[in-house]
Amino acid sequence: MSAIELPITGMTCANCANTIERVLRKTPGVTDASVNLAGERASVTFDPAQTSAAQLIERVRAAGYDVPLARVELPVVGMTCANCAHTIERIVKQLPGVAEASVNLASERLSVGYLPGAASIAEVVAAIRRAGYDVPTQATTADRASPSEVVRTAHRAEIADRRRRMVVGLIFALPAFTLSMSRDLGLLAALFGPHFAPMAGHRMPEHIAVDWILFALTLPVQVYTGWPYYRHGYRALRNGAPNMDVLIALGSSVAFGYSALVLLGGGDGHVYFETAAMILALISVGKYLEARAKGRAGAAIERLIGLTPKTARVLRRRDSAQNDTYEEIETPIEHIAIGDVIVARPGERIAADGVVVAGRSAVDESPITGESVPRDKQPGDPVTAGTLNKEGVLRYEAARVGKDTTLAQVIRLVEQAQGSKAPIQTLADRISAVFVPTVLAIAVLTLAAWLLLSSDFERAVINAVAVLVIACPCALGLATPTAIMVGMGKGAELGILFRNSAALEQAARVGVVAFDKTGTLTQGKPAVTEVLSFGDVKAESVLALAASAEWNSEHPLARTVVETAEARRLPIAPVGRFQALPGRGVTATTTNGSASGAAQHLVAAGNLKLMQTQGVAVDAQASQGIAQLQAKGRTVMLVAMDGRLIGAIGLMDTLRPEAQACIAELKRRGIFTAMLTGDNARAAQAVAHDLGVDEVVAEVLPADKATQVAALQTSGRGAVAMVGDGINDAPALAQADIGIAIGAGADVAIEAADITLMRSDLRGVVQAIDLARLTARGIRQNLFWAFFYNALLIPAAALGIFQQYGPILAAGAMAFSSLFVIGNSLRLRRARV
Predict the structure, then answer these.
(1) At 732, phi and psi to the nearest 5?
(2) CB-facing half-sphere around the CA of 423: CA atoms within 13 A
(3) If one looks up domain 487-522+655-770 in CATH, what number appears?
(4) Which range among 320-329, 362-371, 809-818 shows the weakest confidence by mean pLDDT?
(5) Which of 239, 299, 574, 622 has the fewest CB atoms within 10 Å, i.e. the most exposed one?
(6) Mind listing the pLDDT tens digit for each residue in 123-139?
(7) At the fourth CATH level, which superfamily is domain 523-654?
(8) Which ranges carry the HMA domain (predicted)?
(9) Which residues are paired to 638 by β-bridges?
(10) How far apart are CA 300 and CA 493, in angstroms?
(11) Looking at domain 311-404, which CATH architecture does it have?
(12) Mean pLDDT, residues 534-551
């Protein structure tokens, strides 16, 4: 199976999204399709053996919508006949993401329309060359387009078109409305005489002239401003899924048509040309502002996409006799290969994931991890694409390029998550599917009821038009996806990645957070916490002797002791005979111990079993000191010299500096905390006591952690989140309602976890839950407003409460409702989490 993201233009309401979903799902080979109205994207999973990107795009276009493509023309060398042209067209069209391919044999040029991100110029060129033809090298770097550039270009074109139609609508509608209001209020009669006032029973020629002026002002609005609504409304009806455009087109055309009949027939009824014009003008204003606001909703992902530089300086070998000389060549990032050495100067962005091979600098990683403090980089340190080199010059070797970089994975994950549907959206989708037919039925009933009860055809038509125009399926369709887009975009800026919108919704319900201990609540690296000395030996000498004995050992505790002694600048004596005793410790002979000059001494460092086998006695004082260390949950290393116990070293996996604050913040939010660990109970209890964790389950195997998570899920405290490294705790993460991988960056964690924290900071757990709760609250507010608005104002319009200018007021209210929903979602961008 393959997955593809299609940018879509032309959608106006939830019915449009539902129509595209239905059309795509009926395509042979498509297993799933989800359309995000706010993000204007379709996520499609399909079998490439049965369908292709080109066929999917054709299906969308046949439904009346469009998919913007990047286009490029490439010169092709080596064609000799029409068969060559057909061969190239066929091969290029088979590439994933290529929608169109046309070869002009006479000019020897290939025109390609493709989805950037799903296909690239490099892939097209490679396919042509495999077929036995060639593309000049200089042509392969031209006309590159990124997904964001294509979408932004299409979005800018759509906004520009909406703006033009809005301006034309306002230029003609406002004078029409002013003229009509002036006549109705008697202002024309006061200024120009009584002949301009409406006359009872018949109309004077002067009055008819005003109607013709209103007709002339309204006609451009109907034809130009209203054309998209008529076109999209017709296509929606043809697809059997009437949408908002049907309501607008029908409402405006009924008002215009009724008025035209009155004017042409010479009847005595009132004309409503200004109503038809103002409906389209006001809704066009709303749609223009809505398009701009939707662009801001996706601003976070656009900023992520914009982090990738277009070119990079790659070191290439000079073409000369001196094969060991190199020069910097500025190269499009599409041409960077694994193993290339890239140069990043101060102020330039890293172009690929890699490892520093030369230079020192500070790198701002905040776009990826959310960490505000730049990190120092030196040879051997990793660097990530999209991060910013701040100070010195770095040379780094590319390890992952293009679609495989961490930044590309993050962008792909955020796009997929934004395009997914939250479970709460199901209700809105079900209502949207029947919303427009229901409104049409209410409008017909309104017309019939007013005719039956009042016999006032004019009033009946106006109230029916008000019902059509005031109904707003857009607010229902935008309520969930706009909040999801903004929430996930905010999360990406903070280094918090939600796998999909269901994970975000579930995270808002978390009532229990379970943590792995080692590497999650702790640093995952032991540290020396205490050094005890027995007798007349100093503590520094105990640590130095232990480091001397452990110098050749590879055990993690041994390396910690050696590193601690080195950091304290203690003298480490050379050793002679060395012996490692698994499960007990080490013995070694020193030739320059700090405790006894240059004489040789036998030093033993290990646990109590080692002391017993070495015949070392442990007196009451030593036993008491050892017991105190063990009570604190320390791992104890005993040190003996020449058969006499001289000291004990306490080691412990140190807590993350933010762990205590994280637990406290979770408890402040009413969330129950638990710790699951394979460590001994005493050490686990010590950590839990220091942090304030509510429940501890110790000495549990990784495979059994899932059982413990299941037990927490039956506690009735709410959804359970499990925080771990994303690999060792995989069963527990899978069992939990929400799996949170901390300090990930690893492919496995990014792909497997429900929530991935890009930096190793437990505060991200609290931020993720806070953000999920804020987003869920925004969704509930949006849905309430959308339901409340339609439930209140549709009956009000049907009852004629808005009187003569009901359709105009309805058009303004309808435009405001969508803007309110989007504006409420955009508030999440300013939220502090």
Answers:
(1) -70, -40
(2) 7
(3) 3.40.50.1000
(4) 320-329
(5) 574
(6) 888 888 888 888 876 55
(7) Calcium-transporting ATPase, cytoplasmic domain N (3.40.1110.10)
(8) 2-68, 70-136
(9) 606, 648
(10) 7
(11) Distorted Sandwich (2.70)
(12) 90
